[in-house]
Amino acid sequence: MAHWGYMTKNGPSTWGKDFPIANGERQSPIDIVTSAAEYDSDVQGSSPLSTNYTPESEVKLVNNGHSIMCQITKKGVLTGGPLGKDEYRLEQFHLHWGAEDGRGSEHTVDGKMYASEVRYSYVNTLHLVHWNATKYSSFADAVQKPDGLAVLGIFITPGVACNQFKVISDNCANTSDYWTYLGSLTTPPLFESVTWIVFKEPVEYSKEQLSALRNLVDSDDNPMQDNNRPPAPLKQRKVKKTFT
């Protein structure tokens, strides 16, 4: 894969040269315009969004040059909501963050990195990546399929640290209020294979955790900061929501 990053010479504005799909019809992230998001009671389908994650016995965080990532070894399952009856297996989680508080999230809300109706400033995004285990045999098999992946996008704000495997529990995130749309991976190869589920309410990370992330070094030997792709055009897509 071509070398890519977040600098001027290899950042998101250049990705289309090596990855033409960067200008595709369902790229992510997007700006979520709250007034245009359509409430749809059918988004929940026959059952509400549900997770069943097994805690890892030993969590190994890896610096892949673009983010900090955790490969999942235990079975974790996401079902329901816009995913219908298919079972999506948790593959990995990673984060995107800014050099300072007030920026760093990938999806934006009404053109800003915070939502006007809540008091939080979104400075990071946690992405939990799943693959469709009902239809496909592995992540590699699913990653390029239109219905192959599902990603939970969770905004992060400074505060009290929250265990990564409890981010969808009642005390860390509200899983019933979310936006959903069809999109893509937000990093190369940018495959348009993701059903995005972006939670409205953020979770909290401690300032110490955020500081540790900002002190990492990226693949260009620079501080790993502002590793977020700007919003892509929505084009003909619709964003749906589960709340009024």
TrEMBL record:
Main location class: secreted
Annotated catalysed reactions: hydrogencarbonate + H(+) = CO2 + H2O
Domain Alpha-carbonic anhydrase: 2-243
EC number: 4.2.1.1
Reported cofactor(s): Zn(2+)
Pfam families: Carb_anhydrase
Keyword Disulfide bond annotated: yes
Recorded superkingdom: Eukaryota
Subcellular location per the Swiss-Prot or TrEMBL entry: Secreted, Extracellular space, Extracellular matrix
Basic residues bias spans: 235-244
Location of the region described as Disordered in the Swiss-Prot/TrEMBL record: 217-244
Keywords: Calcium, Disulfide bond, Extracellular matrix, Lyase, Metal-binding, Repeat, Secreted, Zinc
Enzyme class name: lyase
Family: Belongs to the alpha-carbonic anhydrase family.
Protein name per its UniProtKB record: carbonic anhydrase
Organism from which the protein derives: Mya arenaria (Soft-shell clam)
